[in-house]
Amino acid sequence: QVLLVESGGGLVQPGGALRLSCASSGSIFSFRLGWYRQAPGKQRELVALITSAGTTNYADSVKGRFAISRDNAKNTGLLQMNSLKPEDTGVYYCNAHQTTIERVYDYWGRGTQVTVSS
């Protein structure tokens, strides 16, 4: 069992920046890490992914503004968010995912609130 805890959310003005962290209770070096967000009244959507090999993928809406990274030595995932817009507002969730022959491992944090408003 892996517990994920997000931090770094808050209130920021449009154009500002935040850095989200996802701390894991166990080793996640072999997991794919992802950041998802959910705005009020909307479905949860993918923001960014990073594979165990370091390959990244981003939603079109955040390309060029957000950067996902990982520190396997610290069992941590990071999301640097720049040039924030009001539409980036939502609860941001960290996900760790791994598929093996035996089973699928899929862990979620409880989320951290990001509000972009003037």
The number of helical segments is 0
Category from helices, strands and their pairing: mainly beta
Order of helices and strands: EEEEEEEEEEE
Largest sheet: 7 strands, mixed
* Poorly predicted tracts of residues: none
Estimated helix fraction? under 10%
Count of extended strands:
11
Strand-residue proportion: over 45%
Query: What is the residue-averaged pLDDT?
Result: 96
- What is the global morphology? globular
By oligomeric state, this entry counts as single chain
Rg over C-alpha atoms, rounded to the nearest angstrom: 14 Å
End-to-end separation: 40 Å
How would you describe this structure to a colleague?
The protein has strands spanning 4-7, 10-12, 18-24, 32-38, 45-50, 56-58, 66-71, 76-81, 90-99, 104-108, 112-116. By secondary structure, it is an all-beta fold. Strands 2, 4, 5, 6, 9, 10 and 11 form a seven-stranded mixed sheet that branches. A hairpin with a 4-residue loop joins strand 7 and strand 8 (76-81). The protein is globular, with a radius of gyration of 14 Å. The termini are far apart.
